[in-house]
Design brief:
alpha/beta; ABC transporter transmembrane region fold; Rossmann fold; 3 domains; six-stranded mixed sheet; four-stranded antiparallel sheet; 20 helices; 65% helix; binds adenosine-5'-triphosphate; ABC1_TM_sf; membrane; nucleotide-binding; ATP hydrolysis activity
């Protein structure tokens, strides 16, 4: 509720109009039976046709105003709702952008998508119900009960007698539906998760002829979702016939005793008709309100999931007043750095790593898979914070920087080259929004991308499909490199970013890079010895420990792990 009201209250003006429409609508709805009763009991009974005509025109006018107010209610409600969900999604996205890897991993990508789309939609739908039904029904109910008591106090007992049954039913359904709603949303998370994996891993699935297995996996989560939805809908559906059964019993009793009272002359026909109309409004309002109440647990589950995203604070705290300017540019030092992934503090992935890297220098990291290379370099832009020790850039601890200033110093090229849908130019401008065509062409030239772009019909304006699927792995890597180059950062971090390039392109690219980065610090993670053998310093990692530091030649002599890696890739002559 807190979440919904927070967003609804951002539109106080529209809420006020909504309330005015609600009041007007209720007055008109209850005014109609009153006018009808008068028309019957005064006009028809006394054959006063002037009176009948007068009441008739009042009723027509009332209906017209009622329609206008009802349309107003729908329009205003739709406006409030769409803005509500828009603001909610904007805020969620804003907070998600601040998340570190830890928060992403905690909630999970699929769940974040479900929460931003489906859960926000559930909250919006419920708010829509509140704005119309939730506001109208309590007022309608209270006014109807007032009219019921005023018209015939003796018949009121039947209405009051029905209320405990209604209330009991509503509470029962509300209690039953909450765990079902939680389960339903979780099952929807699972559908999204499997769907994402299936769509992004389509080629692997096909290559391994695993379609039947994947279909079965999807079918399972889909059935789970259908099962939980079915139970929920069954529960909701059972409420309606039960209500109409109760409603009909009340009606029969009212008409039965009402006709006895008419016979005895203590009640007029018009009043009985109006009375039945009031009962209908009172009980129907109660039912509609109960449908809001029954939907509440489901919306509350969604609202809680949305609120969790909104409340989640990143462990990587930004320092808005942090350091933005430094005297040097690109001096990097690791000082006894250890790191363990969250929830795994007993087994650090990086242990007591120390090294320095200066502008103009290329430092490379090598080691077996899982030795901690990617983890180590992800600590530099603070994708994770160190568990012990410190990483300093230009003498300042990375945690003391304003986050944007820190990340501006770094050109990070991740292991998996990710391109955004748009054009080649759009993707390059992601690195530098005001990049000129000349700057773009220069970056592409260094990244050895000029040739394949020249073959594209539209050159820089060539469209890139979702995930860059219309480019090869090596082309994507080169574009990702160009995107980082265009920023001219103080520190380049290449996380195995040359792996998809052929040997010749790899060598040419690194040569060009060397000329371009004379004033920058370059860190390269690679599996290929040929990619790193010319680095000024090579750091060999094994199970998170530094087991060797030196040049290619030095390490061949005094680091057995490096020698083993090198000997598996180089010829005897190259080793010598
Ligand atoms: N997000 C994560 N949560 C928990 N453990 C992780 C996470 N990412 C990596 N690890 C673990 O940390 C260790 C180091 O992984 P890392 O990716 O840094 O190795 P790497 O040397 O870069 O390997 P590769 O060369 O295969 O990319 C591995 O044991 C891995 O299982």
């Amino acid at each position: 509720m807190k979440t919904m009201w927070h967003y609804a209250m951002r539109q106080k003006g529209l809420l006020l109009v909504n309330m005015i429409c609600v009041f007007g609508f209720v007055i008109i709805e209850l005014g109609l039976p009153t006018l009808l009763a008068k028309m019957l009991d005064v006009g028809i009974v006394n054959s006063d046709f002037e009176y009948v005509k007068k009441m008739g025109s009042f009723m027509v006018m009332t209906i017209i105003v009622g329609i206008i107010l009802y349309i107003g209610l729908a329009v205003v409600g739709a406006k409030i709702n769409t803005r509500l969900v828009q603001h909610m999604r904007d805020d969620m996205m804003g907070n998600i952008q601040t998340f570190s890897h830890q928060e992403y991993e905690k909630i999970g990508m699929s769940s974040l998508i479900t929460r931003t789309t489906n859960d926000a939609f559930q909250v919006m739908t419920f708010m829509g119900m509140i704005l119309r039904i939730g506001f109208i029904t309590p007022i309608m109910f209270a006014s109807s009960v007032y009219m019921i008591v005023r018209t015939s106090p003796s018949l009121t007992a039947f209405v009051i007698g029905a209320l405990p049954f209604l209330l009991g039913g509503i509470l029962f359904i509300g209690k039953k539906s909450e765990p079902l709603s939680t389960k339903q949303q979780k099952n929807l998370d699972n559908i999204n998760k499997i769907l994402r994996e299936n769509l992004s891993g389509l080629r692997v699935i096909r290559a391994f002829v695993n379609e039947p297995f994947e279909e079965e996996r999807f079918d399972k989560v889909n059935s789970d979702y259908a099962e939980s939805s079915k139970k929920l809908f069954k529960l909701m559906a059972a409420a309606q016939p039960a209500f109409f059964f109760l409603f009909n019993i009340v009606m029969v009793l009212v008409i039965w005793f009402g006709s006895i009272q008419i016979d005895a002359g203590s009640l007029e026909v018009g009043n009985l008709i109006a009375f039945i109309e009031y009962i209908f409004h009172a009980l129907f309002s109660f039912l509609l309100f109960s449908s809001v109440f029954m939907m509440y647990p489901r919306a509350a589950v969604s609202a809680a999931r949305v609120q969790e995203v909104l409340d989640m604070e990143t462990v990587i705290k930004d320092l808005p007043e942090g350091v933005t300017e430094t005297t040097t540019q690109g001096v990097l030092s690791f000082e006894d750095v250890s790191f363990a992934y969250p929830g795994n503090s007993e087994s650090p992935v990086i242990r007591d790593v120390s090294f320095t890297a200066s502008p103009g220098e290329t430092v490379a990291f090598i080691g077996s898979t899982g030795s901690g290379k990617s983890t180590l370099i992800q600590l530099i832009p603070r994708f994770y914070d160190v568990s012990r020790g410190a990483i300093k850039i230009d003498g300042v601890d990375v945690r003391d920087y304003k986050l944007s200033a820190l990340r501006h110093k770094i050109g990070f090229i991740p292991q998996k080259a990710l391109l955004f849908s748009g054009t080649i130019a759009d993707n390059l401008k992601y690195g530098k929004p005001d990049a000129t065509e000349e700057e773009m062409r220069e970056a592409l030239d260094i990244a050895q991308a000029t040739e394949f772009i020249a073959q594209k019909d539209k050159g820089l304006e060539e469209p890139i499909s979702e995930g860059g699927s219309n480019f090869s792995g090596g082309q994507k890597q080169r574009l990702a490199i160009a995107r980082a180059l265009i920023r001219k950062p103080a520190i380049y971090v290449f996380d195995d970013s040359f792996s998809a390039l052929d040997y010749k392109t790899d060598a040419t690219l690194r040569n060009r890079l060397k000329k371009e980065t004379t004033e920058s610090t370059v860190l390269i993670v690679a599996q290929r010895i040929s990619t790193i053998m010319h680095a000024d310093k090579i750091i060999v990692l094994n199970e998170g420990n530094v087991v060797g530091t030196g040049t290619h030649k030095e390490l061949l002599k005094n680091c057995s792990i490096y020698y083993d890696i090198a000997s598996s890739q180089l010829t005897e002559e190259e080793l010598a």
